[in-house]
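To assess whether ligand presence alters the predicted conformation, the chain was also submitted together with 2-oxoglutaric acid. Input:
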Amino acid sequence: MLTAEQKCEFKDNGFIILPDFKSCAEITALKFRANEIAASHDFDVSKEVFSTDRQRGPQADRVQDYFLGSANEIRCFFEEKAFGTDGSLVQPLEQSINKIGHAMHDLDPVFHKFSHGDKLAELAADVGLSQTQIWQSMYIFKQPRIGGEVGWHQDTGFFYTTPQSVTTFWFAVDDATLENGCIWVEPGGHKSSLRQQFTRDGRQTKLIDLDTTPWPNTKSAVPVEVKAGTLVCFNGMLPHYSAPNTSDHARHAYTLHVTDGACRYAPENWIQRSNTLPVCGFV
Ligand SMILES: O=C(O)CCC(=O)C(=O)O
């Protein structure tokens, strides 16, 4: 699937951009299903905002359980700016959800179809994954006007393997632009050290600082402005970020975080699977 040149590009820069990886029909089907899930979310069951920070306040246990339970379920999380001072939504429900996570690729037929197949398996082999394991799916809405920033991070910190293997498959569902909060990456930044690790012990989660190397900024990084249907595939060590969406247009994206089963998956990673829902690969 990748040419020798593209394989070198992936190795040197830590990422590769593949326009038209998904067809318009595939993108439309995924978006339709994501909007259906968001629209059917029961506002009274959960008003959680997604955060990997330690939960605080009287609802902390419930909030943490909702987040941890999402590892092997399909759950909706709100944008931080979704709520007015009186606690009601400032935009319609479908335009208030920040993301859906984290097991749609296994549990929802439409997401399952989009997330599997020979084309993805071939690409994974080309970027060095010998036995793919898809641990997480996220549908990110980056809603118009209120779509929040995703701070600089490296995905290895969330899916730690020895040796490092996590690879991110980021699909543009809408055109991603500077105005609507496209992702930014630091070319070659995957050769830097791992700054942070997110760990879980029972119901406790922690974001541990490992290294003080500063995060890139928008001078050393480049924006990845791409058309809907494009796949951006990147090394889990690559620092990346996305700005808030201040435009009137949503920036939907779908991501898969995939490791190599030949590497040791850390028992302290927050997502674990059991025999009832074993981790699976692209085929
Ligand atoms: O799409 C975004 O805004 C960020 C996605 C991301 O950070 C990831 O999938 O690891």
